[in-house]
Amino acid sequence: MLIDSHCHIDIDAFDHDRDRVISNAIALGVEKMIVPAIDAKSWDKLLKICAQNTSLYPALGLHPIFHANHQPSDLQRLEQYVAKYHPIAIGEIGLDYFIDDVEETCQLYYLQHQLKIAQKYDLPVILHVRKAHDQMLNTLQRIRVKGGVCHAFNGSLQQAKKYIDLGFKLGFGGMLTYARSTRLRKLAGELPLNAIVLETDAPDMTVFSHHGERNSPEFLPDCLFALATLRNLPPDHIAAVTAQNTRDIFELNF
After folding, report:
1. What is the mean pLDDT of residues 142-148?
2. Which CATH number fits domain 2-250: 3.30.750.24, 2.60.40.1080, 3.20.20.140, 3.90.180.10?
3. pLDDT digits (tens, 9 = 90+) for 55-68
4. pTM, whole model, 2 decimals?
5. DSSP letter string over 190-228?
6. How far is Cα 83 from Cα 68, in angstroms, rounded to an integer?
């Protein structure tokens, strides 16, 4: 079994062929997919899609890139949805200091409040972090949660170890399949395997063999084989360990 620990199968880019994509992914061994939200207006659609397919697991949150779309009232609504619908995680949340409209104070406001919701409901979190790992780690030291996944990890080995010490797994996906991703590939080869989960981030960050195309959970085997090659281990072993890592962090029983 493979688990895609991060894919946005709910968004409009999949509206015309979502069922086909999910069926194909399952046929290729990607039997479960975790679907993080990006903003409040998407939650109802995401929950409906996940309720219709036992392979999908929802996470609810407010993505930092879309901070301009969020309202403080969304945080109260998030807590209401968490209590009612029991998502497996709070996410996708985080800090993105790479975008042009950074608004650090605004991003931190939503991050901190969502971490506190995760803390209150004893849920893991799915983090999006770009150019902000030190700020994120400092925040996680102050607002302790039960762990989660730092998705599309792109920090240093030292930062990776700090996340691991805080109970986090690190997500790796399509960028592993690009030879030019030398630093990332080196990092994926050095980290403890029990700290790694596989992801696609579909429809973004597609694999090398489908460069220029919409990414899909169907392409997760490419990420698996890239990681297996980097670590000189059988793909079946990598699949088993990373799937178990995902089950552990999100407390999934299957």
Report:
1. 97
2. 3.20.20.140
3. 999 999 999 999 99
4. 0.98
5. HS-GGGEEE---TTSS--GGGTTSPP-GGGHHHHHHHHH
6. 25
